Amino acid sequence: MPILSRVRSAWNAFRSTGEQQEEVYNLGLGSSSAPDRPRQRYYNDRSIITSIYTRISIDVAQVLIRHIQLDEQDRYLKNMESMLNKCFLFEPNLDQGPSQFRQDIVLTLFDKGVAAIVPVDTIGTPEAADFEIVTLRVGCVKEWFPKHVRVELYNEATGKREEVILEKKFVALVQNPFYAVMNEPLSTLSRLTRKLSLLDSVDEATGSGKLDIIIQLPYVIKSEARRQQAEQRRQDIEFQLKGSQYGIAYTDGTEKITQLNRPAENNLLKQIEYLTNLLFGQLGITEDVMNGTADEKTMLNYHNRTVKPILDVIIEAMQRSWLGIVGTANKERIRYFRDPFMFVTVGELAEIADKFSRNEIFSANEIRGFLGVPPSTDPKADQLVNSNMPQPEADVKKAS
User: Fold this and answer.
1) Using alpha carbons only, how large is the chain's radius of gyration in Å?
2) In degrees, to the nearest 5, what angle opens at C-alpha 11 toward C-alphas 9 and 16?
3) Which of the listed residues 182, 210, 238 is the one where a domain comes to its end?
């Protein structure tokens, strides 16, 4: 491009002032934090519950969801060239990427019990059999009707969360498979939350700065004069502690002081440990999964017992609401794909690649794709051949 044309077409982010940008772009309502971000309930925000939600939601978000086409034997054939698949793989909406969108689904699912995945922009009406979904948003259900739901959803046009009434058949309503464990009023998670709240109250009372001491005076306090004398003695000790640099006071040799603000002798901490272990067992997670030291078998069990049920209900709700009978009859499906080599070491991966290539399951270029290596230009790299065995074509060339 000529230099003059490059200068004329150049653009700089700081070229215009803030007032000019507001006039040009018509920015609308502003906020110091992302208004579309899911907000958890206040008692989940400050406890171990948040770390559990985050861990599981991140693991679910790592699994890809695709709109695919099956062959006549119901085997995976190809990815669909649809707007829905572009939402899954590139941009579900203006504010979120695919991973953020999947994590938003899980966080809303855990916190509210039900996540509503709403097609906001579509090509064609939802009543049409061939409507195309352009953008997706995650909302929470505020009210249920026989055939409709009231959903609180972020409106990117106004920058606010608004409530809309939509048909159930149009919205993918995802029910939490662990609802009885996480969202019921008397569930394990609710009991653990209440115990953690009590423990926080005890900690705040302990660290409030009060000494909580009892002074035993060497005389019986029954008359009004003795009460006034005792009150004067208490004020003297308070004055000494408050005025001393190191908080030191003196007492008479006949006086006895008992301190009460020691740790409470109850089984609250044991109950919290018991409920935490019970919750981990019911959700299929362990301490090793939470701190990242779990081995391959533990992670496989965690994915089968925890991650897979969540993904299953998500794609089933999408399949039922958006593809329906027509899409299912046309061999269209919504499936999720997890990297099978995520927890495999390099040495084990080399052994697996050798077995797959020897048994002609994967070609060399397919294996290179798993490793993140560009494909080879050798035509043999795209063929299902066992390189350890003599090939018929090679034997014919040698004989000639």
Assistant:
1) 32
2) 130
3) 182
Angle of helix 308-318 relative to helix 48-61, nearest 10 degrees, comes to: 60
For residues 139 and 154, is the Cβ–Cβ distance under 8 A? yes
Tell me if 159 is assigned to some domain.
Answer: yes
**Is a pLDDT exceeding 80 seen at residue 23?**
no
What's the one-letter identity of residue 263?
P
Instruction: Decide the pairing of beta strands 172-175 and 213-216.
Output: unpaired
Asked whether the whole model's pTM tops 0.90, one would answer no
Query: Which residue segment(s) compose the domain that 29 sits in?
Result: 3-182
pLDDT, position 116: 94
- Beta strands across the sheet bearing 132-144: 160-167, 148-155, 132-144, 114-123, 172-175
Max CA separation in the chain (angstroms): 126
Strands ordered across the beta sheet of 332-337: 76-79, 64-70, 332-337
What gap in Å lies between CA 4 and CA 32, rounded to an integer? 41
Q: Which of 116-120, 131-135, 153-157, 207-211 has the lowest mean pLDDT?
A: 207-211
**Rounded distance, CA 369 to CA 372, Å?**
5
d(CA 259, CA 252): 17
Helix ranges restricted to H, 245-295: 268-283, 287-291
The answer to whether residue 316 is domain-embedded is no
Domain assignment of residue 246, yes or no: no
Q: Which carries the bigger pLDDT value, residue 354 or residue 60?
A: 60
Last residue of a domain, one of 182, 208, 236: 182
Query: How many domains does the structure of the chain reveal?
Result: 2
Q: Report residue 289 as tokens.
A: 């999964």
Instruction: Say if CB 95 and CB 119 are below 8 A apart.
Output: no
Half-sphere exposure of 90 (CA within 13 A, CB side): 8
Q: Is residue 94 part of a domain?
A: yes
